[in-house]
Hints:
Order of helices and strands of chain A: EEEEHEEEHEHHEEH
Radius of gyration of chain A: 20 Å
CATH architecture of the largest domain in chain A: Alpha-Beta Complex
Helix content of chain A: 25-40%
CATH class of the largest domain in chain A: Alpha Beta
Strand content of chain A: 25-35%
CATH superfamily of the largest domain in chain A: Nucleoside Triphosphate Pyrophosphohydrolase
Largest interface: A-B, 30 and 31 residues
Number of strands of chain A: 10
Oligomer: homodimer
Distance between the termini of chain A: 50 Å
Amino acid sequence: MPFTYEYPRPALTVDCVVFGFDGGGLQVLLIRRALEPFLGSWALPGGFVDMEEDLDQAARRELQEETHLSQVYLEQLFTFGTPGRDPRGRVVSVAYYALVRPDQHPATGDSDASEAAWHPVDQLPPLAFDHTQIIAKALERLRGKIRYQPVGFELLPKHFTLTQLQSLYEAILGRTIDKRNFRKKLLAFDLLIPLDKFTSGAHRPARLYRFDHRKYDTLVRHGFHFEL
Amino acid sequence: MPFTYEYPRPALTVDCVVFGFDGGGLQVLLIRRALEPFLGSWALPGGFVDMEEDLDQAARRELQEETHLSQVYLEQLFTFGTPGRDPRGRVVSVAYYALVRPDQHPATGDSDASEAAWHPVDQLPPLAFDHTQIIAKALERLRGKIRYQPVGFELLPKHFTLTQLQSLYEAILGRTIDKRNFRKKLLAFDLLIPLDKFTSGAHRPARLYRFDHRKYDTLVRHGFHFEL
DNA sequence: GCAAAAGTGTTTATGTTACACCCATGT
DNA sequence: ACATGGGTGTAACATAAACACTTTTGC
C-alpha cells in the first residue's frame, strides 16, 4: 500500500542522556557538536531516525556512532517537540537515557572526531538546543526509578562492594544513608550474591558482590516489588 | 534560517488513552474509525501533529475534535515508532493518557460524526494499529502512578465520598482494600477537605470531600511525598 | 602502631495489618 | 422493621530508624 499522507512532517531525532558513576558523583556524557547549529557547543549524543529503524535502534546506533558505546541499559525517557526548540525548524526528539558501567566508559577526550567527555550532572556547561531540560528530566526519572527498580547496578562494575553501591545511592538521591540499615535492607532481598573476591588496596579488603538478575526477573514475574 | 535537512521523515501523530471511571470499573474512550486503514474499527482518538503546534496541544486538539473533551488531565505516556505499526508506512505516534471526571464524560453514542464510546479496560474489542499495546502501557503507568501521586481525584467528581475513592483505588489496583485502614491513611494526609454536603439516596448519606490541590502543591514543593 | 575503610546487632519508634459492630436513611 | 451502605478504634505485628565499636589491611 503506497504511503499517501499529504501532511507536512516534522523532522525526527533521538537524543541520549548517558549517565555514568565514577565513585564520586553522577556524570553525563556530552559531545562537542561538529555541525551547525551550535557548532562547538556541548550537546547530547543523538541524531536523525532512519526510515526503517525502530526508535530504540536509532538511539543505540547514534550512541555507537558518537560515543562508541554499545550494550548499555537504555530506556525511552520523553519526547520533546515544542516548536522552536531547534533553530532550523520543527524537530521532534525522542529522548532516551542510558546507564553505563565504569568499565564501559569511553576515555574522556577520545581520539575520534566527535570529542566526548564526562561532566558532573551538577556542573554542566551551557548546552545546545533544550538539552539542559532533557538532562533535568532524565535525572528526575533516574531519581524516581532507582528507588523502586534495581537499575543502580547498571552504573557499577559487575562486581562491586556494598560501599560502592551505597555511594551510588547517596549520589543519586542526594542524601546520606545509614550504613548498617542500608546493608541490612539490601542483603535481606537476597539478590546480592557474595563472591569469594575482595578488593585490595590501602585498607581492609571489602567483599565483592554481584546482582542476581535471574533471580530478580523470576521474583518480579511472581509479583515481587523491589523498593529502596 | 531555512530548514535544510534532507533526511526523509516519518509521519508524526498523537494518540490519547482516555480513562474514565463510572463507579464500577475503569473505562477507556474509543472512537470508530471513519477512514482507511481500519475503517470501522475501534481506535484511540488521535491524529497528525501540525507543524506549528506543541505535542501536548496536538493531543488536546485531537481530543476536542474527536471526543469533545477539553480541560482534562493529560500526560505524555510513550512514543511508539516501530516500523510497520501503520500499514501505510512509517508513522511515529506520541501517546498520551488523559483522566476525565464523570461529569465531563461525553454521552456514549454521541450525535457527532465520529462515534465515541466507553469500553471497560478489561473487555476491549479488537483495535486498530498497535492501540491495544498502547492501552496496556497506559494502564501499567496509571497503576504505578496512582500509588505515589494523587491522580485518582482526576477520575472522580470534584466532590466525592470516601467510598467512591476507595472503589476507584480498588478498580485500578485490582484488589480489595480494608475500609478502615484506607480512610485512616488518606485522612491522615490531611489533604481531603470534608464538606458540609452529603449524598442522598436510598441509604445513610455519605459525607462528601474535595481534594486540596493547593495544599498538596505546597507540600510537594517542601519535599512531601504522597504514597498510596 | 596508626590511619582508613570494612564490617556487624540491638533497641526504639513508626507504620501496617487484621478485625466487628453500630448508625442513618429510604422503602 | 428491615435492608443497605456509612462510619468508627484497638491490639498485634512488621518494618524502619537510630546508634558505636571492633576488624583488617597498607604504610
